[in-house]
Amino acid sequence: MPKLSNRWSAVAGSVAVVVGLLAMASCGSDDTVDASKAEQGIESSSLSTSTTQITSASCPNDVKKEKDKTFTCDVKLSGGGKAKVIVTQTSNHNTFSYSFKQGSVKLPGATVDKAIEEDLAKSGVTGTIVNCPETVTVAVGKTFTCPFTTSAGRQGQVSFTFSNASGTVDSSSVKES
Question: If you placed Cys at 161, which of 36, 51, 71, 173 could pair as Cys (CB 3.0 to 4.6 Å)?
């Protein structure tokens, strides 16, 4: 009987060690933000627009849970754009709010070209090809200028501003010269 008792003691000791390790592991994860939940939230957030369609997000795994604390995630945008998103912890239970980091949204020029061409077409300037730089860094309040060519061969410049940090072209600001 003593041998049986020793075996049970050994099994019980092993179980206690495993339970203790699991408890420690879960305590550690209870103290940090669930990065995958933050990433999923960014991807399905209202930050995605026609010019800034978020295709993926990558957040750090070692952020401590703390209400009102912020951290930054990298996002990829459709067409090859990229940005940084500031994530604010709205509680200690993996709930967040999201905003683009000012000046971090970099849109492919082709995406901006298309938005401006659509605005010009709405104002009667059809068949226009706009040629902004390969990458446009969004800055609200700054006026951008890009060359254009009409289908008739006329060349000129078009100026515009962004209406928000996500890169929406302010249609009322699109002016040709």
Answer: 173
**In sequence order, what are the beta bridge partners of 144?**
160
The pLDDT tens digits along the chain (177 residues) read 445 444 444 433 443 333 333 333 333 358 999 999 999 999 999 998 877 889 999 999 999 999 999 999 999 998 899 999 999 999 888 899 999 999 999 999 999 999 999 999 998 888 999 999 999 999 999 999 999 999 889 999 999 999 998 899 999 999 998
Q: Which amino acid is at 115?
A: A
DSSP-derived secondary structure for the chain: -HHHHHHHHHHHHHHHHHHHHHHHHHHHHHTB--HHHHHHHHHTSTT--SS--EEEEE--S-PBP-TT-EEEEEEEEGGG-EEEEEEEESSSSS-EEEEEPTT--EEEHHHHHHHHHHHHHHTT--S-EE---SEEE--TT--EEEEEE-TTS-EEEEEE-BSSTT--B-GGG-EE-
Give the dihedral of Cα atoms 134, 137, 138, 140; nearest 10 deg. Answer: -130
| Count of other CB atoms within 10 angstroms of residue 55 | 14
